Amino acid sequence: MAALSHSSKVQFLARASFFENFAPAERESIAARLNSRRFKDGETIFMRGDPGSTLMIVVEGRVRIGVNTAEGREMLLTIMEPGQIFGEMSLLDGQSRSADATAMGDTLVLTLERFDFTATLRQFPEAALRLCAMLSEKLRRSTDQVEGVTLHPVNVRLARLLLTIAAQASKQSSKPIAGIGNPRLKGNPTQRDLGQLIGASRQKVNFHLGQWQAEGIIARDGNAFAIQNWKALQAIANSDAE
What we know:
Blueprint: H1 6-15, H2 24-31, E1 35-39, E2 44-46, E3 54-68, E4 74-80, E5 85-86, H3 90-93, E6 100-113, H4 114-123, H5 126-151, H6 154-171, E7 179-180, H7 191-198, H8 202-214, E8 218-221, E9 224-227, H9 230-237
Antiparallel strand pairs: 1-6, 2-6, 3-4, 3-5, 3-6, 7-9, 8-9
Helix pairs in contact: 1-2, 6-7, 6-9, 7-8
């Protein structure tokens, strides 16, 4: 994973969900303040309770965000894909980390310190309004996710998750991507991971993935898979039938 040039950082920010609506001059200012960090598969990026003053953007690899229960088991909260950010609340309140972040596969992230981001906001006050809008959208998505777990069956939740991950992967590519994960790389979400993200058992996830594979909707290679029939998977995502 080579270091990113300034122009590459600017181009990447234009595709990153948090910064895509920022003006070009704002992205130029932010890119000049970004630093790169690399993590190996399974390496801790930060732990719950660590001091927090840095926003991070996933460039390559994935990052799992979770917390440990009283019994010592990990509760997976989300998996951050390339182009997504985490730790953004530290830019606003400077409080300690509320969860653990761990690299999934060899991972490259860009970091932005709170001081540097506030300098950009002072230089471009309109960026603060964009920040509020993006945080509101993220909160809305979290609310929709909680609603989905309580109101929709497992197959609907799983189909929506696969489509969301695939859409994020396509956004970061120069060409459309119909797959999720690369069988030659470490760090693909496991069935247990997918189950935790939608509030379902690994067995339920395995059942639906196997069924969709038999129907030609997806193709699997280990923990990586490709969506072969987008319309069929979208139809499942928009239905409420098991």
